[in-house]
């Protein structure tokens, strides 16, 4: 369990990844995006997560450049993730998509590159491309997103390199206990997207009561629940005060009873697509 914003988790290939970062899903290109990324870096965030389909890699890259310039940090101190989209899940197509993402971000390499969705019959060719990028030293680590257990089992049958990450929808209404246990067994780190369930949990009575006991917000309780479960999390925000608040979660601990109360909120409810029924 990480204990402060700059703490890292050691992935199965030895690469150290910050346990907390900024996600930019649905943040459009423009000054707001640039300022959000810059504000995150300025306030101690060292991990930024984007994807080709978000269509905001250029703004993320500009925010990174401005953030590094303002803070004096080096590129090597940041951890940048992007993802290959479903329409590019072929061997050559994925290699090309990686170069396109690098160009848009204005970076020489990515720290982590993920297959965004387990599109049937296509992700194995894409994984071979990720393995090539990894073996050639063009990316520090490779992983997947939205993979169920059966997808991981299928991938691992032929993979030469094990995924370091499985980034999935994860929040108190979708605790994914079986998947989390499987990933722990396989030494694949779980990472949460949509940890706040796109805001749907912020008025929950159970979470609000726990938050009141700790003098924290509901969002801070949820994000700490992620961290206390050993799950990397990347909440999205474009407001600097919210970016700061989201990371202010390391000065309290949830009791085992509170953790159980939060776990009990599970309904296996998704706000995003079902990975078994999603192609594009």
TrEMBL record:
Gene3D superfamilies: NADP-dependent oxidoreductase domain. InterPro entries: AKR, AKR5G, Aldo/ket_reductase_CS, NAD(P)_OxRdtase_dom_sf, NADP_OxRdtase_dom. The keyword Electron transport does not apply. Residues 31-266 form the NADP-dependent oxidoreductase domain. The record marks 83 as: Lowers pKa of active site Tyr. The active site is at residue 54. One of its GO terms (molecular function) is oxidoreductase activity. Substrate binds at residue 116. Keywords: Oxidoreductase. Belongs to the aldo/keto reductase family. This is Glyoxal reductase.
């Amino acid at each position: 369990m990480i204990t402060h914003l700059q703490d890292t988790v050691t992935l199965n290939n030895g690469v150290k990844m910050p346990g907390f970062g900024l996600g930019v899903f649905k943040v459009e290109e423009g000054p707001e995006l640039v300022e959000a990324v810059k504000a995150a870096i300025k306030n101690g965030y060292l991990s930024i997560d984007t994807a080709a389909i978000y269509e905001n890699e250029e703004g993320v890259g500009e925010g990174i450049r401005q953030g590094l310039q303002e803070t004096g940090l080096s590129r090597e101190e940041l951890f940048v993730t992007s993802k290959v989209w479903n329409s590019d899940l072929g061997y050559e197509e994925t290699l090309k998509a990686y170069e396109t993402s690098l160009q848009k971000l204005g970076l020489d390499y990515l720290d982590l590159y993920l297959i965004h969705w387990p599109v049937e019959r296509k992700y194995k060719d894409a994984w071979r491309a990720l393995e090539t990028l990894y073996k050639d030293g063009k990316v520090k680590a490779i992983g997947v997103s939205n993979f169920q257990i059966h997808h991981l089992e299928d991938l691992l049958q032929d993979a030469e390199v094990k995924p370091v990450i499985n980034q999935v929808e994860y929040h108190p209404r979708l605790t994914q206990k079986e998947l989390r246990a499987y990933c722990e067994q396989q030494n694949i780190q779980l990472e949460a997207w949509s940890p706040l369930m796109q805001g749907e949990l912020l008025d929950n009575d159970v979470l609000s009561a726990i938050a009141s006991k700790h003098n924290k917000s509901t969002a801070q309780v949820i994000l700490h629940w992620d961290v206390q479960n050993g799950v990397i999390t990347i909440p999205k925000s474009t407001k600097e005060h919210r970016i700061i608040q989201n990371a202010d979660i390391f000065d309290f601990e949830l009791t085992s009873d509170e953790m159980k109360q939060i776990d009990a909120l599970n309904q296996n409810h998704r706000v995003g697509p079902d990975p078994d029924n999603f192609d594009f």
